[in-house]
Amino acid sequence: MLVLVINSGSSSLKYQVRDVEAGSVLAEGLVEKIGMGNGGEGDGQIEGPRDHAEALEQVDAEIHAALGDRTLDAVGHRVVHGGERFAEPVLVNNEITRAIERLNPLAPLHNPANVLGIRAISKKWPDMPQVAVFDTAFHRTLPEHAWRYAVPDELYTNHGIRRYGFHGTSHEYVAHRAAALLDVPVDEFDAVIAHLGNGASVTAIRGGQSVDTSMGFTPLEGLVMGTRSGDLDPSILVFLGRAGWSPEDIDAMLNRQSGLKGLAGNNDMRSVVEASEAGDAKAAMALAVASYRLAKYIGGYHVAVGGAKAIVFTAGIGENSHQFRALVAERLGALGVELDGGLNRERSKEPRVISSPSSAIPVLVVPTDEERAIAEATAAVVTGARI
Ligand code: AMP
């Protein structure tokens, strides 16, 4: 089955064509600057597609050669917010599209773009089966004591203010691969998974299910990220509001100017590690803040899962930065965690154990592949729907 995986952003459209049975990638690309630049009258501004429909025409042209005489069987969409309703990937129809649209207020930057992507496909290929795969869905198993904020109930009942969690597709995929690597049935797998990319979150897995996760109402809560602050005292926002900052100023500061960038002036982990090794004190402190925060979460989630059988690193930083993994592991000494320095530094695209045999908890690196997970989920839903 050939599945086109779409990750539709407000001004970009990332795609991959996957052969699900072969596990291969036939084509991939990124269309950028959607809705930007074409409005100018010959001002030499950047040229971009006018809208998502036009971007899709570009994708269609780009994948044409790669497909040869084969045709797409389905489209799988990465949808950021599934709210409380969606616990599984679903076959898209008009009602589902409207339901995703109703969640726009919860993810104003992401869900409207996801809906535009779905509508563009419906218009171009009306008979194409489409599946929505939600970033929040895997965390629908969180117990209420983990998803509740201790605020008046009315905020939850009237405004949907609760913890939802994100990166679910990645955490679920990595949980399955890590369990397989350790030869444990996934429904008996208790672990802590750290997805460390530009966005970062850590999830407590008990019996293969998510029982806690560090991102909350939005993908801002939790760990120190590339440009996002993660946890802080909410009174800081009140303080800044009283000092005249607008909601937009606060939002930009927390989401785009904080994290590694705020602390070290750079949001790329490679540069921060290099600067720290060259003696830059701010970079060293940024790494210390980020690794300390993550180690605290791992310690807490070790408790949440009743004793983790594995600690798993994934995504850009988790898969590639042996320096950051070492900093985190050093702080986990009280749990009996011990890395094997040689295994930790090894470069590989394969899932692997990087702890020493005497480590009380095995530490793993498991590459994530969200597109593959979305393609497989799409194929499963479409095949199931045909029976
Ligand atoms: P992602 O969002 O999963 O693509 O991850 C992006 C993050 O991974 C950025 O902070 C990069 O600096 C980091 N990253 C990618 N490759 C490496 C590498 N070889 N060493 C350290 N960090 C890396």
Task: Describe the protein.
This protein has two domains: 133 residues, 2-Layer Sandwich (Nucleotidyltransferase, domain 5); 187 residues, ATPase, nucleotide binding domain (Nucleotidyltransferase, domain 5, 2-Layer Sandwich). It contains 15 helices and twelve strands. The strands form two sheets. The chain has a six-stranded mixed sheet, with helices on both faces. Helix 11 packs across helix 13. The two termini are 15 Å apart.
Short key terms for the protein model shown above:
Nucleotidyltransferase, domain 5, 387 residues, 2 domains, binds adenosine monophosphate, alpha/beta, 12 strands, 6-stranded mixed beta sheet
Q: How would you sum up the global shape?
A: globular
Q: Give Rg in angstroms.
A: 21 Å
Number of helices: 15
Strand-residue fraction?
A: 15-25%
Helix/strand structural class? alpha/beta
**Helical residues, percent:** 40-55%
Number of strands: 12
Q: Residue ranges: pLDDT <50 for 5 or more in a row?
A: none
CATH superfamily of the largest domain: ATPase, nucleotide binding domain
The average pLDDT value, as a whole number, equals 95
CATH topology of the largest domain: Nucleotidyltransferase, domain 5
Order of SSEs: EEEHEEHHEHHHEEEHHHHHEHHHEEH
Please write the CATH class name of the largest domain. Answer: Alpha Beta
Distinct bound molecules: adenosine monophosphate
Q: Do you know the CATH architecture of the largest domain? A: 2-Layer Sandwich
In the residues, how many domains can be counted?
A: 2
Largest beta sheet, briefly?
A: 6 strands, mixed
Read across the widest sheet, the strand sequence of neighbours is 3-2-1-4-6-5
Distance between the termini: 15 Å
